Amino acid sequence: MSPSNEARLRIDKWLWAARFFKTRALATDAVNGGHVHLNGQRIKASHQVKVGDRLEITKGPVQFALVIEGLHDKRGPAPAAQQLYCESEASKQARVAVADQQRAERISRPDYGSARPTKRDRRAMDRLKG
């Protein structure tokens, strides 16, 4: 599709082509579930987007705030997909902060090995929890 201002594309197709979701079905579920907002409004998966629209996408604890800069209905390589949008600096900083927090939580969590806890380990965990 051409990146002209008159061109429009379904939001679920765009999310899939921009590599925010692995399949169109996942993109459709996210849009219908209220995890994607267009210009501050909740939308349906069949809604048409155009260049210049603002999107807020929530994937778990991570939120993306971006502006659509291009439309494409085919899924391509990641560098080409990154050309389809421009993410705000605040969004990038928030994502880095969430990643740092998750990393700190993972490091502070005790490692009980890859196997199931033994009876002794379970009792120790119960004592810690109170």
Automatic annotation (TrEMBL):
It comes from the Bacteria. One of its GO terms (biological process) is cellular response to heat. Residues 9-66 form the RNA-binding S4 domain. One of its GO terms (molecular function) is ribosomal large subunit binding. InterPro entries: HSP15, S4_RNA-bd, S4_RNA-bd_sf. CDD domains: S4. SMART domains: S4. SUPFAM superfamilies: Alpha-L RNA-binding motif (SSF55174). The keyword Nucleus does not apply. Keywords: DNA-binding, RNA-binding, Stress response. Residues 96-130 are annotated as: Disordered. Belongs to the HSP15 family. This is Heat shock protein Hsp15. The lineage of its organism: Bacteria, Pseudomonadati, Pseudomonadota, Magnetococcia, Magnetococcales.
